[in-house]
Amino acid sequence: MTRLPVANRELIRAINRSSVLNLVKTHGPLSRTGVARLSGLSPATVTDIVAELIGERLVYEKEPGDSTGGRRPILLAINHTARYAIGIKLMEQQIIAALTDLSATVLAGITQPLEDGQSLDRAVQALATAVETLVEQAGAERQKLVGVGVGLAGVVDSARGVCRYSPVFSWRNAPLRDLLQARIGIPVYLDNDVNTLTLAERLFGAGQGVDDFLVVTVGRGVGMGIVVHGQPYRGTRGGGGEFGHTVLDPNGPLCGCGKRGCLEAYVSDPAILRMAREALARGEIALAAQDLTAPRLVELACAGNQPLQSVFRQAGQMLGLGIANLIDVFSPRLIIITGEGVRAGDLLFRPMRESIHRHAFADLADDAAIVIQEWGDDAWARGAASLVLQEFFRSPIEGGVGIPQGLA
Ligand SMILES: [Zn+2]
């Protein structure tokens, strides 16, 4: 009998470890017998790997629950606080950072102001400071921190850790991942912010177990994340998903990107503010200066301001038109709508749903469930932390780094 080379044996052991850990994560609490049955590994191998995972405090034995008699099996569960991840959303004027456990539950968060016109070097410095401040404030042990995920708007080549284009910071081909990693000495992962939200939905949210779905974000801009066959679709060099800049009317209003009639120029917060100002200029509504914020316009519309209701109606109709086009192209099982803009609720989404059904081809819209996701301030940072958690749970067979050894 030939013996496998040491490197292969180590790889197989790492793959088995990952398989056991993921089964307990997905199906736990689970007995050792259950793990063996689901994984196809021998009971002896399972016992061995479980002992190692318990030794590293990644897995623990739960108190046996009530039973109808007979010997109760000991159940295994993930110890979610055995490791931590940090997620950061890098924005124009601030950094939002969150520390999460292994289930992406936010344990602590900070918001740090950022000056306008950041140079790459100063942004990296600010990110490093945010990591240190958060670790300190949360009282977390630094050696339990497995990585830092960073999400930002723009075109990001996640595999290379490079921001190819940031409209906010005017960066081109900025090697943000390597610069930050060198500064803090912890693995760093980088992606477009909407992709990080999509990942959080896939791993921990409404997208769990759904093979084909889209995430549409509305708020400061309009973005989209795409999951096809259970995997993110990013397009060539990370450029896919620019749903907000699909043109609905070439003679429409000017968009921030320089083109006319992009969806974003009808639906984003700045677009809704612009439409409100136009209604004000036409004398259709009376608004005070302090009313010209997106949350305040929602309040006024909800309180019965009809011209403002019609502004949201128009935005909702355009959003529905854009989504009907997406349904025709992808025929997804699920569309998750999220972002700061969901605060508008039915003002936006009732006309959106009508518009989807009016414009989608045949009965394709009936196949796509639409979920409006409640928005929390830490959602972006939690999404960025999911980049780290994905890597932590990824099997070496999928090209993941596996579970860092000896961190317990
Ligand atoms: Zn545009």
Question: How would you describe this protein?
Answer:
With 408 residues, the chain is an alpha/beta fold. Helix content is 40%, strand content 20%. The chain contains twelve helices and 16 strands. It has helices spanning 6-27, 32-39, 43-55, 120-138, 176-184, 193-204, 264-267, 269-281, 294-302, 306-330, 346-359, 379-393, and strands at residues 30-31, 59-62, 75-78, 84-90, 94-100, 106-113, 145-152, 155-157, 162-166, 171-174, 188-192, 213-218, 222-228, 231-233, 334-338, 369-372. A five-stranded mixed sheet has the order 6-5-4-7-11. A hairpin with a 5-residue loop joins strand 5 and strand 6 (106-113). Helix 4 crosses helix 5 and helix 8 (269-281) packs antiparallel against helix 10 (306-330). The longest helix is centred in the last third of the chain and has 25 residues, at 306-330. It is globular and about 80 Å long. The two termini are 36 Å apart. The structure holds zinc ion. Zinc ion binds next to loops.
